[in-house]
Amino acid sequence: MCGSIDSTASARVAFKSAPGKWAQQVYSNCETYPRQPRPLAFHALGLFCLGEHLALIDLPLGLLFSTDGPYGRVAHTLLNGAMLACAQINADPGSAVRLRPVQVNPKGVLQEYAAGAKSLIDQGIRHICGCYTSSSRKEVLPLIEKHDAQLWYPSHYEGFETTSNVIYTGAAPNQHLTPLIDYLFNSFGRRAYGIGSNYIWAWESIRVLREGVNRLGGEVIAERYVPVGETDLAAHIDEVLELRPDYVFNALIGSSAYAFFRGLRRACAERGIDQPRILPVASCNLSEPELHEIGSDAADGQISSSVYFASLQGARNAEFTAAYRAAFPDGPAVSAEAEASFIAVHLLARAVARAGSADVVAVRATVPHCAIDAPQGRVWIDGSTMHAYLTPRIGLSRKDFGFDILREAAEPVRPDPYLVGWARETEPALNSPVLRIVR
């Protein structure tokens, strides 16, 4: 057991400074909790089912990730993390569960997510680990709820969703978004420029940014949205250079984000501007494989708020990164998304073993009583929200496609997906109507 955690903590976070052979093996089978639960420990590539000796449970697991399309690189790491966890669990002779992963690739086409989820459900699969974007999650949720299946959602997201049919292992907004807002305001200034892909995650993220900045006495001087996959961002880059905000909040995804980072760095260089110092860009979705996509000319000096970076110190992360790199030597690089899907599958297996059944209702009731010593640290599910306790961190990217960790929370933070605690602090801003023109 680690030290006690304040389960009533508000949304504010206290920081302290701070495919080869294996891949063939990994993919060979692919077709309000008041206290910390007992942790699950990893052993070699397996896990202990502590105190449990159950008959082997066969568990088909749907994997719904778009490894092609505008955000395919990141989604590939989600798939890799889930498959690595499946391989570890199946290789452990002490495991009570045998996973049978079944993969569906919607190829980044929104309408294909519902079709993919239906194909998995029609096969009798009731546990699905999948989706990267919030729009894809929203697309499959009606089917998941209709058939009382369980979606294990391993991506950071905007919050403000409640359903018993989703277990969230990615960061809630108080674990990545609100800490970043405070950091940016205190480190760089009061004038923010927001740009994002035109869908719900970016809309909600920039809305929270605006309310947080207003509370602190600042302003979002511009708010822009572009279609997912749009790479012609010259006009927006020119606007950033003209307006000179204190920082840019980036909520673009995939190829749009890569084009923006490269274009802004290039435009600044042409004008003799030190972009990271004069026009810093901060994101809640920037991870190591995306730095590779951006390229070495613009990969350094970018700010990222996340619960996991591959550069974390500690034995658990060393084991995880070594196993991941051995399994997937050709990449994509390990990421927060890979860790979140890895956590989701291990928590699922732990809950099934403890429940003695893969029944969705039984697993749902059991999972808040499970915990794992994950690569990022202790992780468990809050039974009142079905979101995970996670440890917020802020990193600064390097030219070698890694991150230096600038700040991190002292302990895992209770998820506040509805920003209830934060709303109390921002009440004047939330209750003051603000009319704006969004172009």
UniProtKB/TrEMBL annotation:
InterPro entries: AmiC_PBP1, Peripla_BP_I. CDD domains: PBP1_AmiC. It comes from the Bacteria. Pfam families: Peripla_BP_5 (PF13433). GO terms for molecular function: amide binding. This is Amino acid/amide ABC transporter substrate-binding protein, HAAT family. It comes from Paracoccus laeviglucosivorans.
